[in-house]
Amino acid sequence: MARVLIAGCGYVGTALGLRLLELGHAVWALRRDPAGLPSAFNKLSADLANPADLGVIPAGLDHVVYTASAGESSDAAYERAYVTGLSNLMSAIAKSGVRRVFFTSSTAVYGQAEGAWVDEDSETAPVHFSGRRTLQAEALLRAAATPSTVLRCAGIYGPGRTRLIDAVRQGTASTSDRYTNRIHRDDIAGAILHLMAASEAPATVLPGTLLLSDDEPAPQRDVTAFIAARLGVPVPSGSAPAEGPARGGDKRCNNARLHATGYQLLYPTYREGYAAMLAGAGPKE
Fold it and tell me: How far is Cα 62 from Cα 16, in angstroms, rounded to an integer?
């Protein structure tokens, strides 16, 4: 049984925590207001931006997963969540013997455009403050003594995140040619579980950076058209800006290193993921 702290436990962290519990592990979930989290979690009320709050973190943890989100789209909010919060947490656990920290970063750290392919070794020159702050957080994590893995997540979607589906229904969704990349919430949780298990094997060296994206970067127009066909509605006629144009860029993410770890995607492309959402299906087994 592993003892796992999920710091900033929200959309991804809750899904991960539930999977950990199913496998018999112990979960501590930390956030400012943990009241709405599943009752089976060990709930910790703390503000990651306040070092004095972090005395609630238990001893004897095996893994820490940092899944905090900014809460709003501002540079100050991103600095607070990703730089200040992560720095405080790393200080709090510095001498605790934690085996590994997993940090959910973002592909916003890349600034490439015009459909360029990127991987873990590509240049990171973000054009948006979100990418600059997450890249700053990655650097401070690597400078810490505790082993860590940075997980650069593409656009996260899954149950409950219906903005694109709603926009297709309303006829306002983008039909842009810009390439988009995504990863299902349950594949982020699955990949973290896979890496935790792999870390137990003798002589296994986990990657320091791993890009989490599915198998098919796709122009936004293709994703919109697929959802429209499933809904039985016309494809929107306009070409509204794609979601998150300032952050998303126009790049294609290469997930070969993720496959090399042995992880098999639950939702290899947007087709499987959105089909499951539209059918009201739960996570695939």
Answer: 15
pTM surpassing 0.85?
A: yes
- 69: phi then psi, degrees, rounded to nearest 5: -125, 160
Q: How crowded is residue 8: how many other Cβ atoms within 10 Å of its Cβ?
A: 25
Q: Which residues contact 103 (CB under 8 A, 6 or more apart)?
A: 65, 66, 86, 137, 138, 141, 148, 149, 150, 151
Distance CA 266, CA 285 (A): 8
Distance, CA of 179 to CA of 173 (rounded, Å) = 15
**Can you list the residues of the chain whose pLDDT is less than 70?**
203, 238-248, 281-285
CA distance 251 to 261: 23
Q: What is the pLDDT of residue 199?
A: 87
Which domain covers residue 111, as residue numbers?
A: 3-158+183-214+250-266
Q: Which residues have CB under 8 Å from 52's CB, separation 6+?
A: none
Non-local (6+) Cβ contacts of 18 within 8 A are 38
How many structural domains is the chain composed of?
1
Q: What whole-number distance in Å separates Cα of residue 107 and Cα of residue 213?
A: 9
245 in any annotated domain: no
Which tokens hold the place of 71? 């809460």
